[in-house]
Amino acid sequence: MIREQGIMYGSASTGAMIREAAELIRESRLMVVSTGAGMSRESGIRTFRGEEGFWRQYRAEDLASLEGIRKDPGLVWEWYRERLRACCQLQPHAGYRALVRIQETVGRLPLITQNVDGLHQKAGIRDVIELHGSLRTASCLAGCGASPVPMTEDIFSEIPPRCSCGSVLRPDVVLFGENLPEQSLKRAFRLAESCDLMIVIGTSMVVYPAAALPVIALREGARVIEINTEETPLSRLEGTLSLRGTAGLVLPQIAKAVCEE
Ligand code: OAD
Ligand code: ZN
Questions:
Q1: How far, CA to CA in Å, does 71 sit from each of 32, 179, 230, 245?
Q2: Which member of 132, 170, 223, 244 is catalytic?
Q3: Whole-angstrom Cα distance, residue 208 to residue 179?
Q4: Which of 152-156's residues contact partners 24+ apart within 8 Å by CB, and which partners?
Q5: pLDDT tens per residue across span 250-260
Q6: Atom 35 (ligand 1) nearest CA
Q7: How many Å lie between the centroid of ligand 1 and the Cα of residue 190?
Q8: I need a surface site. Which of 22, 71, 94, 160 has the fewest CB within 10 A?
Q9: Which domains does the chain have, with CATH numbers?
C-alpha cells in the first residue's frame, strides 16, 4: 500500500493513476458521473453505512420507509428536519468545485446522484439526475393532488407538517418500499448504456438500481473510474480504475491534471 498526500492506493503510483484518470477524461466522448453519500462526507454529512453511518444508529425501516412515516410521522419528520437544517448550512467542498471545473472543460457532464442534499446543484453542476429524490419539496402522503410545498423552516411550525387537506406531508425523497422516479431512472440507464466513461464517487455499491449503473457501463465497453476511501464490489472489475482516497482530495488533483494538459 502506498501513501502519498493523504491518498492511499493499492497499486501503481499516485501520480500515474491521477494522470491515467485525466487522460481517460480528456479522451472520452460522453462521460457521466455517479455519486453516493461518500461525496458529501467532507461537506459534513454522515454516510449511511460504515462505522459512523446513519444506519448504525437508526433503523432505515423506521425513518426512511413508507411504513415508518405512516406509523410515526413525528419521529420521521424530526429526523428530516435535522437533515434539512444540516444540508442548508453546508457548503460544497473542493471535490464538488473540481467536478464543476471538469464540466467547464468537457462541456457536457450529466451527473447521476443518490444524494438528496442538493450540493451538486449548489456547486454549479447543470445536469443533475436525482435518483433518490431531494429535500427541496414535500408532498401529501395521502396523494390528494395538492402541489408539492417547498421544504423550508416554515413547514416545521407543526410536526409532523400537514398538507392543506389535513393529511401528513412526506418529503419528496425515495423511501424504502417505493419506486425510483421513472424518468430519472430511464435517463440514468440510457446514460450508463451510451457513455464511454463513468466516474463513480463515494457509493458502497449495495443499493440497487444505482449500483447496477457502472456494471452496465462496463458491460457496454465503457471505462469506469472509482473514487472511494474503501474497496467496493466495483473496485476489482475489469475496466475499473479504482482510486483509493477521499473525494475532496482526489477530485481536485484529477481536475488539475485534466485542465493543465
Ligand atoms: P453508503 O453510506 O452506503 O456508502 C458510502 C460510501 O462512501 C462507502 O463506500 C464509503 O467507503 C465511501 N466514502 C466515505 N467517505 C468518503 C469520502 N470522503 N470520499 C469518497 N468516498 C467516501 O452510501 P450510498 O452508497 O450513497 O438510500 O448509499 C446508497 C443509499 O443507501 C442512499 O441513497 C440511501 C441509503 O439507504 C435511500 O435513502 C433510498
Ligand atoms: Zn393532501
A1: 39, 20, 36, 40
A2: 132
A3: 11
A4: 156/77, 156/81
A5: 999 999 999 98
A6: 48
A7: 23
A8: 71
A9: 1-44+92-132+179-261 (3.40.50.1220), 46-89+134-173 (3.30.1600.10)
